[in-house]
Write a structure and sequence with these properties.
Blueprint: E1 2-6, H1 12-22, E2 26-30, H2 44-47, E3 57-60, E4 63-65, H3 68-78, H4 90-107, H5 109-120, H6 131-149, H7 162-176, H8 183-193, H9 196-206
Parallel strand pairs: 1-2
Antiparallel strand pairs: 1-3, 3-4
Helix pairs in contact: 1-3, 1-7, 1-9, 4-7, 5-6, 7-8
Length: 208
């Protein structure tokens, strides 16, 4: 059985949501970030499967994955009939990859920068003055997002995919970090977060 290790609304939520959408059997374990006790991200048993002591980690037999986007694509590959990752043509897959790489390289970077300089990095390495820069960066990425999403119900048009999970979770991250997220994207986030699979995933993060 697939095992997923995660924590709350972190990037691991993407993988938990995708697993719920897929319908495959899995086991979810909440990891206490920063703790060296058993069940913590710095415990030796966890560091054996994720040397960085981060989440998510997916284990399927001998396969171990620790990058959220790679986990989404793997989950999608397990149930190709659901088209969570498009496989109709090389061009369809390329468009999907293009958007996912945009989210990872552009849209989420200001969010991670704010997180690092707010509470992740040691205090002596935090730079408060960069917070205005990340607002500018996210605003610029939102304009690029407008180009991708114009006139679309989902990232790929009329087909829900793991790209929507990636985007909706990132928009939720931006909202939680008190960035100015345009109304249409909050509405998009809210609509997708009402999906039964997403609601099941949220319940799992709260039950641990």
């Amino acid at each position: 059985m697939i095992k997923l290790y995660g924590f709350g609304q972190s990037r691991s939520f993407r993988a938990l949501w995708a697993l719920e959408e897929s319908g495959v059997d899995f086991e979810y374990t909440n990891i206490r970030i920063g703790s060296s006790d058993e069940g913590g991200s710095q415990h030796p048993s966890y560091l054996k499967i994720n040397a960085q002591g981060k989440v998510p980690t997916l284990v399927d037999g001998d396969l171990v994955l620790t990058e959220s986007a790679a986990i989404l694509n793997y989950i999608g590959s397990l149930i190709p009939e659901k088209q969570l990752v498009p496989n109709q043509t090389p061009a369809a897959r390329a468009k999907y990859d293009d958007f996912c790489f945009f989210v990872l390289s552009d849209l989420e970077q200001p969010l991670w920068s704010k997180g690092k300089h707010s509470f992740v990095l040691p205090e002596e390495h935090r730079i408060e003055a960069m917070f205005e820069t990340v607002k500018f960066e996210l605003s610029r990425s939102m304009k690029a997002l407008d180009h991708y999403m114009e006139g679309k119900e989902f990232v790929l048009g009329d087909q829900f995919s793991c790209a929507d999970i990636l985007l909706a979770q990132t928009l939720n991250w931006a909202d939680r970090f008190e960035f100015d997220v345009p109304k249409q994207y909050l509405e998009y986030r809210d609509r997708l977060y009402q999906r039964p699979a997403c609601q099941r995933a949220i319940a799992k993060t709260k039950s641990k």
